[in-house]
Amino acid sequence: MASALDRIRVGSAPDSWGVWFPDDPVQVPWERFLDEVSEAGYDWIELGPHGYLPTDPARLTDEVTRRGLKVSAGTVFTGLHRGPAVWESTWEHVSEVATLTQAMGARHLVVIPSFWRDDKTAEILEPAELTREQWGHLTQGMERLGHEVREKFGLDIVVHPHADTHIDTETHVERFLDSTDSALVNLCLDTGHYAYCGGDSVKLIETYGERIGYLHLKQVDPEILADVVKNEVPFGPAVARGVMCEPPAGVPELGPVLEAAQRLDVDLFAIVEQDMYPCEPDKPLPIAVRTRAFLRSCGA
Prior knowledge:
Blueprint: E1 8-12, H1 30-39, E2 44-46, H2 57-65, E3 70-78, H3 87-103, E4 108-113, H4 132-153, E5 156-159, H5 170-178, E6 186-190, H6 191-196, H7 201-207, E7 212-217, E8 219-220, H8 222-230, H9 235-240, E9 244-245, H10 254-262, E10 268-272, H11 284-297
Parallel strand pairs: 1-2, 1-10, 2-3, 3-4, 4-5, 5-6, 6-7, 7-10
Antiparallel strand pairs: 8-9
Helix pairs in contact: 3-4, 7-10
């Protein structure tokens, strides 16, 4: 048994049940997700796509509490690189999610940058590289978002590097961190997305430890990833091919990542997020049970 990682709080999310959208006929019903995530041995969950779980705080509180669950974060999608013109629509979306997140007693808001390539249709939406001006809009917009979310909701934003977005590779992630104020903006390090984009999670934790505010745990299958990179497969179809795999079958090794996070000596959420959209409804629970057992073997 590995040494106890007592600063790491493990949870899971609708994503690990194949849930990417608020409403989709191929996804499991939210009641089943809550039942099974509790059965699998997790204490913490994220809200997932806004509208998938009940948005009435009283009802959701009842649903999660009676299953022994607590909420760690909400998730929002933003396109702040587009400049001040998108602020009002962004804030409307963020406020809606942040209101529920705050009501559920959570302290974090996971912020995902908008996709330059559609994850469902694979349509190219805009260039993969930002201009200098767009980088300025992105970093300043995230700082403003961090300030406003903290002032109005008491939440901390954690920005999630993500495949097929403008914050993805080591170069882009480091540029983003070097260009933003740590008092306002920190990172949700997703180990699977970072590996998917060629990054080293342990190195990032050891180099930018003070900026790591939250973790998503997932792994990629190196063989499938190699084919995805070679053939420039978009993220959505890559997930359908199984590029995100059950630990410990893929990379990065999660034990060293968790140990590096523990050495930061701060309390961190580590939320399991194995992308499986779409998937058969009976597939997630056995994987979730095995993954929880594996993380316990790592000390988490």
